[in-house]
Every structure is written in C-alpha cells, then in structure tokens.
Amino acid sequence: MVYSCAYFEHGNEDLATAQEKKIDHILTKIRLQRGHTLLDIGCGWGALLIRAAEKFGVRGVGVTLSPNQATLARQLIAEKGLTEYIDIRLQDYRDIQGKFDRITSVGMFEHVGLRNLRSYFAKIDSLLVNDGIAMNHGITSTDAESGETPYGNGEFIEQFVFPNGELPHLGLVLKTMQEAGLEAFDIENLRHHYARTCELWTNNFEEHAESIKLLAGERRYRIWRVYLAGCAYAFNKDWISLYQIGCVKAGRQRNSLPWSRQYMYSQSIAVDSRASDQTP
Ligand SMILES: C[S@@+](CC[C@H](N)C(=O)[O-])C[C@H]1O[C@@H](n2cnc3c(N)ncnc32)[C@H](O)[C@@H]1O
C-alpha cells in the first residue's frame, strides 16, 4: 500500500504497476546495493523498505508518525518473513540517530513546513554517510515565492485535509538543500505522473463510493472526492508539481556516481535481484 505519486514508464500502466515502478525507479536512482543500510523517512506502510529487502536483502529503518501505519507495516513485514531486515519505528524524523548509506523520503517533506526546511535537509545530511545518496520525492508549489496555490486550492486542503501543510517552490528546495550541505545531482519533474495517479485514485474512489461512505461517512466522502479530483486538476494545470531530487553531501570529489544517467534506465534492479543468492 502506497500513498504518493506513482511512476508511469509508458503511461498506460495500472496503478499498482506504476507504484511498484516508482519504488524501483527510486531504488535504482540511489544505486541501492546489497550491504547498504537504508532509512525511509515517512515510510507509510513500508512498501519501499519491503521491496528493498526483497530485491537486495538490504536492512532498513522506517519512521512514521502514524500508529496505524506502523502496526500494519509491521504486520505486512512479518507476513513476508522480513522482520529481521526492517525496523518500523513510531518516531519523528528529528529524533532519528545514526548513519545510513541511503536515505529516502517519499511524500513526506510536504509536512515539514517552510521554516523547518533547512533543518530537515541538515538532518538528512547528518544521517548520511560521507559517500551516501539521498532521495527527496515530494510536492512543490509552482508559485515562485512558495506561496499559496491559486484559486483557494491550498485553503481547502489546509482546512479539510492537511492542516499546516506548506509547499516550497523547487528553487527554495534547492537553495535550502545547498545551505544544509547537500548537492542535488539529479532532478526529475513528475508532475504529470501525479496528475495521472490522482485520476486513477479518483476512479477507484468513485467505484467504491458506497463502501467508502459507510466507512468514513458522507461528509468525509465528499471532502475526499473534491480533494482527489481537485489535486488531479491542480497537477494538470501546473498549480502544484512533484520533483524527485537525488542528492549527495556537497563538495565531494568524484564519487561513485556514473558520468551519465544511463544507469537509471538500465534495469539494474532486475539484474541485481536475479544475481542475489541471499535475498530473503
Ligand atoms: C503521504 S505519506 C507517504 C508514505 C509513504 N512514503 C508512501 O510513499 O506511501 C507521509 C508519511 O510521512 C510521515 N510523516 C509526516 N511527518 C513526519 C515526521 N515529522 N516524522 C516522521 N514521519 C513523518 C507520515 O506518518 C506518513 O507515513
């Protein structure tokens, strides 16, 4: 189970396939390898860590603020026999200690707040080993001043769905990353991918309208109906956007990153998983 933008390699994938491709795209971009330690900030139900453990036998830590997510994530991990590989913690990212070879944050930094952005990236920098790689995947404002999105879209979300959410412009993200000691090495705009994700979520939502009303009540049903369709529209209109930003510690000498971006499309995940003899 995943609650973030999917990745459509061809555009005609179903949602589950596109979500799996999103995770694989990220794991390929961070050049995850057997033996690495992986931290997933805002891990949701643990899907990225589960895939990383299954494909690479990688040990991971995931933090979430949601007790329900933590419980279900641990249950899913136990069902797959991965308990010794993945540690799900009910913990604020600011309280994480230690060092990790790879760090991912997917759909989480929207909750950080503009004034905390620099300390958020500084925390990632402090948790990353010297030659480590981190990936921040999140929604951005397309307002150059990182202000409200147009036509009350932000106001509706603030009042009914995500109180205290704030979206930075990509420019502010890169500036604060740099100030916090991180160098962006790769930036990919996935705005249309999130529009498509929201359209597919909306379709699923409509299909299951009656059971959702029973589960969540008429009022919440109507709020989320507007929210999902409105987000699809906002991404389509470029009122909001979504960027994956790969980063390393700033000022490093030539590191382990290849000269070209070809490795991001070279099916390295599939090769690695077939080659691994210790995958749990
Ligand atoms: C939109 S969900 C994304 C979940 C997951 N990464 C995915 O792609 O499905 C945001 C996640 O960030 C977590 N989160 C928000 N603020 C956090 C904080 N201060 N510390 C740790 N996790 C946080 C939430 O608990 C939730 O798991």
Radius of gyration: 18 Å
> Could you tell me the mean pLDDT?
91
Structural class: alpha/beta
Show unreliable segments. 270-280
Helix content: 40-55%
Main sheet properties: 7 strands, mixed
Tally of helical segments: 10
CATH topology of one domain: Rossmann fold
Question: According to CATH, what is the class of one domain?
Answer: Alpha Beta
**Small molecules (ligands, ions, cofactors) in the structure:** S-adenosylmethionine
- SSE arrangement, N to C: HEHEHEEHEHHEHHHEH
CATH architecture of one domain: 3-Layer(aba) Sandwich
Q: Beta-strand level of the residues, as a percent range?
A: 15-25%
Q: Can you list the strand order of the major beta sheet?
A: 3-2-1-4-5-7-6
**Intertermini distance:** 20 Å
Strand tally is: 7
Indicate the overall shape. Answer: globular
The H-level CATH homologous superfamily of one domain, spelled out, is Vaccinia Virus protein VP39
